[in-house]
Amino acid sequence: MRRVAVYSEGSTMATGSGTQPQHPNRLAHETSPYLLQHADNPVDWYPWGDEALAAAQAADRPILLSIGYSACHWCHVMAHESFEDAATAQLMNTHFINIKVDREERPDLDTIYMTAVQAMTGGGGWPMTVFLTPDGVPFYGGTYFPPEDRYQMPSFSRVLLAVADAYSKRRDELLRARRELTDRQRTATALRLPAGQIMPALLDEAYASLREQFDTEFGGFGNAPKFPQPMTLEFLLRYAHRTGEPAAFAMLSQTLRAMAEGGIYDQLGGGFHRYSVDAQWLVPHFEKMLYDNALLARVYGETYQATGDRFFRRMTEETLDYLVREMRHSDGGFFSTQDADSLPEAGAQHKHEGAFFVWTPAELREVLGADALLVGEYYGVSERGNFEGRNILHVRRPVAELARVTGTPVAEIEATLARSRSRLLAARAARPLPDRDEKILTSWNGMVIRALATAAIACDRDDYRVAAIAAARFTLRELRRADGRLLRSWKDGRAGTTTAFLEDYALLADGLLALYDATFDPAWLAEARTLADTLIEHFWDESIDGFYDTAADQEQLILRPRDTGDNATPCGNSAAADVLLRLATIYDLPHYRAMALRLLGSMASFLARYPTGFGRYLAAAEYALDRSCEVVIVGDPADPATQALIDAARRPFLPARVLVLQPANQAPVIDSPLLIGRAMLDGRPTAYVCEQYTCRLPVTSVEALRAQLKERL
């Protein structure tokens, strides 16, 4: 089940002809860890930019564009097999201008050229290898190419020679069809989709489609490889809450539990791996991504809030504790990824996928002694193993079953497991650590801020609130230019030069809205509104009734990318719709709401047919269709009676709720009609529960507030 490949710990330095560059190459001055991984290749790499494009034009050579990311296993494999090889590098340097791109820094380039590769080949993935004309038009592409003919794929050197020959001898014929493809892409991104309307029946259809795709045996959707799909789960939670449909919640609960008990979840350290190569969540692709864990922690936290089931709380806390412990910069921002591959032991020459995370029975016995037998039964550890003779820990026998089989009390088993997890985690920490991509991305930090802020409320964890504040301050301080515009990435004390994309503005605003909910600091609301105004000014286009991924004044590429579907992360359009709807409620901004509804309506025909590709859109549509609930608390924030009303308003899972705090005896702290005329009743902290700005009688007791909110549950 393993993607078998090993590669050296460092780059293989090679000497050769005059086609080899001086080492390190041009990537040595970049901030991206992925680009820096290739800085000592014998390939004469350029970063994307004017210098590379001008070199291609001057030499009249095609461009070899290689796109990947630092935690990508097959990117490492191809680097070792081809980019570190002197003979292959000589072919590349002789025939091409070679450009390396970190897809996490440049999602715009990744979107454009991935779409082209998928159109040309019917598939896509990373590493992505695309051949371009000097002006950037793609004419051939693929993903991983092996060093020799295998896997029913041609060798990379054969591809290089064939492309160079075709470009030299049949250029006009080769490019004619590809320019037509680019023209079709350009037309598609500028297409105005038919206007539609978001209706409850549409969400019913989306839910029915998910039921058909649901894996009733193992949870999740579809077959192997199986991805967590947190945005789809977010929609299921909201749909179950709004409609009371028990099957929707059953699908959600089964999936969340199956993932948490599978090998896709790090049973010792917390946090989820990227995806499972099988249908039962056992064998993961071992890298850990910040965005997966932020999105999943939020879903588990909201499910705990909706159910009170402490299993979901534990998963929320373990996932966020992992992020805070292992993925946070000392100044508050969060790093991007943790690699899949590591050395199996100190001093080894080759990295192996998953080496850091897997165990043998002998290793368990060495660390745990007599406890190893019970722990091995719980985690499914055997001499045969489930991953190349070693074991991915997963919950094979639940505690209740172990108690029945062994006759050991449940409490004793749980104590043994807790003690053993701590000892195994300490022993694992002594192993060579997987590499960590320490660049900090604006949009991904926005997702973490929302997850931490949500969990601060759901789990009553002030440390999460503090971590969310620190991440927000870091992002706004380090990733915002003097003119107020955001930047995409930061590493080692230096922000990158790439300006931010739509998703950066939308997802950071999304996080700041949640942070206001957790802190009632009006500064976060003001920042979120400023970001929303900026994304409307620079990314909205009336001709398409939607947003482009790049700003109108951003670098002009062969086309202006526009990602309309959710992928592993929410796309900028769906996140923007969600943010605009919530800000519209708080500030009474009808044009925000109208813009969001136009955007959602234009996607209506896709939501029901392809729900797993439009999860955040569906969640935003749930917000738009749910009964609004605006709650205003008026009182002294330091007064325990005020805090009791706040807690009563925060604790229920009400996804369409907006909660605003107005300190007593002050002018309105935000420019919202919700605060007009709001005062304490009889000098006591007071709550107002409203629907579309029409409020019920104010109440001063927790019981009365709960009763008004309960009518909405």
The number of helical runs is 26
Strand fraction equals 5-15%
What distance separates the N and C termini?
45 Å
Based on helices, strands and strand pairing, what is the structural class?
Answer: alpha+beta
Explained architecture:
The strands form 7 sheets. A 5-stranded mixed beta sheet has the order 2-4-3-5-6, with helices on both faces. It has 26 helices and 22 strands. The radius of gyration is 27 Å and the shape is globular. α17 runs parallel beside α19, α19 packs across α21 and α21 packs parallel to α24. The longest helix has 19 residues. By secondary structure, the chain is an alpha+beta fold. A hairpin with a 5-residue loop joins β5 and β6.
Record keyword descriptors for this entry.
alpha+beta; disordered N terminus; 713 residues; 4-stranded mixed β-sheet; 26 helices; 48% helix; single chain
Chain-wise SSE layout:
Blueprint: E1 7-8, H1 33-36, E2 45-47, H2 50-59, E3 63-68, H3 73-83, H4 86-95, E4 97-102, H5 107-121, E5 128-132, E6 138-142, H6 156-169, H7 171-189, H8 200-213, H9 230-243, H10 246-261, E7 275-276, E8 284-285, E9 288-289, H11 290-307, H12 310-326, E10 337-338, E11 341-342, E12 350-353, H13 361-368, H14 372-379, H15 399-406, H16 410-428, E13 436-437, E14 440-441, H17 442-458, H18 462-478, E15 489-491, E16 494-495, H19 502-519, H20 522-539, E17 540-541, E18 546-547, H21 572-587, H22 590-602, H23 604-607, H24 615-625, E19 629-635, H25 640-650, E20 657-663, E21 686-691, E22 694-695, H26 702-710
Parallel strand pairs: 2-4, 3-4, 19-20
Antiparallel strand pairs: 1-12, 3-5, 5-6, 7-8, 9-10, 10-13, 11-12, 14-15, 15-16, 17-18, 19-21, 21-22
Helix pairs in contact: 4-6, 9-10, 9-11, 9-24, 11-12, 11-17, 12-17, 13-14, 17-18, 17-19, 18-19, 19-20, 19-21, 20-21, 21-22, 21-24, 25-26
